[in-house]
């Protein structure tokens, strides 16, 4: 598994990382501790050395607790990232943003206890708090780094302006945004800025919540508890256009003996400025397939075929529909 620098920290991370949100069991059906532990442990054999979790991955830190159990004495073989600034309201309430210095410290220290470690390798601001200046949150994370509670600091879900404010207060090793073939907004400004300032970009949703994995049928019915229902990518004409794209990607992948998800992951980590793709998994076979997206290179012809398929999708979605003005 290829390793890439985490900014200028001296830390190196695998280009495919395990996203540990699914093992929290909050939005993924069929999750159990046995499979979750096996999924984490499979990373050792696959060469995946980076686990990405968060304080709010689970109502009571289930993701972090499972990581601690799975790693045991092998904790130092993994680069662990966690996040602070988001938590669940008590009694089943909604997710709450709180990036005040006091809360960031409390959540960091609780995460360390759950992970059974004295220091994480990367600590992110999970999301900006509308009631707390980004610079103030950045300063709090810098102090936690100076105290040795994290080796490096990152940020997630910020605008370019917020990233700049953050970096002015705290050394910024990594940025974590959503990014995939269907969500490419960061290419316009954030990716170039991160390349210029030696900030590693670790992207989540590379498979767009499973859509680009090639496993969804056209007549798939999303359950009422499936939050994918709220995204336009899974609705109506756009959903059908996306499935047409997946069919084209499947043809391209088959010519090189790869799965759709492996093709998509390889495309993602081949984009300039992208250091790694965070791939969620809840069973060992899922992370094994995702790992197959690394250690090979798309040909120029494959890249051209993918570009053409993406252009055809855009053209279809931009056509005026019958009855429109």
SSE map:
Elements: E1 3-5, E2 12-14, E3 16-19, H1 33-46, E4 50-52, H2 62-71, E5 79-84, E6 86-88, E7 95-97, H3 101-115, E8 122-125, H4 134-146, E9 153-156, H5 160-169, E10 174-176, H6 190-196, E11 200-203, H7 236-254, H8 260-269, E12 274-280, H9 284-291, H10 300-318
Parallel strand pairs: 3-4, 3-12, 4-5, 5-8, 8-9, 9-10, 10-11, 11-12
Antiparallel strand pairs: 1-2, 6-7
Quick summary:
With 325 residues, the chain is α/β, with parallel strands linked by helices. It is built from 10 helices and 12 strands.
Task: Explain what the structure shows.
38% of the residues lie in helices and 14% in strands. It has 325 residues and is an alpha/beta fold. The strands form three sheets. Strands 3-4-5-8-9-10-11-12 form an eight-stranded parallel β-barrel, surrounded by five helices. A two-stranded antiparallel sheet has the order 1-2. Helix 5 (160-169) links the parallel strand 9 (153-156) and strand 10. The longest helix has 19 residues, at 236-254. The protein is globular and about 50 Å long.
Shape: globular
Say how many strands there are: 12
Radius of gyration: 20 Å
* Tally of contiguous helical segments: 10
Distance between the termini: 52 Å
**Structural class based on helices, strands and sheet pairing:** alpha/beta
Order of helices and strands: EEEHEHEEEHEHEHEHEHHEHH
The strands making up the biggest β-sheet line up spatially as 3-4-5-8-9-10-11-12
Mean pLDDT: 93
| Biggest sheet statistics | 8 strands, parallel, barrel
Low-confidence stretches: none
Question: Helicity range of the residues?
Answer: 25-40%
Q: What percentage of amino acids are in beta strands?
A: 5-15%
């Amino acid at each position: 598994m290829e390793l890439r620098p985490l900014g200028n920290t001296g830390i190196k991370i695998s280009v495919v990382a395990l996203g540990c949100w699914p093992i929290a069991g909050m939005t993924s059906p069929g999750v159990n501790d046995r499979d979750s532990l096996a999924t984490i442990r499979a990373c050792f054999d696959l060469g995946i050395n980076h686990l990405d979790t968060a304080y709010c991955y689970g109502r009571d830190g289930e993701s972090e607790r499972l990581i601690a159990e799975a790693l045991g004495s092998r904790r130092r073989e993994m680069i662990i990232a966690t996040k602070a600034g988001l938590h669940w309201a008590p009694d089943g309430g909604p997710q709450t943003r709180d990036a005040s210095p006091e809360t960031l410290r409390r959540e960091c220290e609780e995460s360390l206890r759950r992970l059974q470690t004295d220091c994480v390798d990367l600590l992110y601001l999970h999301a900006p708090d509308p009631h707390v200046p980004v610079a103030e949150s950045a300063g709090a994370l810098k102090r936690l780094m100076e105290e040795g509670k994290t080796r490096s600091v990152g940020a997630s879900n910020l605008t370019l302006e917020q990233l700049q404010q953050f970096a002015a207060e705290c050394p910024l090793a990594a940025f974590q945004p959503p990014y995939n073939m269907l969500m490419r907004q960061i290419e316009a400004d954030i990716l170039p800025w991160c390349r210029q300032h030696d900030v590693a970009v670790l992207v989540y949703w590379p498979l767009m919540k499973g859509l680009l994995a090639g496993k969804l049928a056209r007549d798939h019915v999303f359950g009422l508890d499936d939050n994918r229902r709220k995204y336009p990518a899974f609705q109506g004409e756009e959903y059908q256009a996306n499935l047409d794209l997946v069919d084209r990607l499947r043809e391209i992948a088959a010519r090189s003996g790869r799965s759709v998800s492996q093709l998509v992951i390889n495309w993602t980590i081949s984009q300039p400025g992208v250091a790694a793709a965070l791939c969620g998994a809840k069973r060992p076979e899922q992370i094994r397939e995702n790992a197959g997206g690394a250690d090979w290179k798309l040909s120029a012809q494959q890249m051209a075929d993918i570009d053409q398929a993406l252009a055809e999708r855009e053209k279809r979605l931009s056509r005026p529909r019958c009855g429109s003005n």
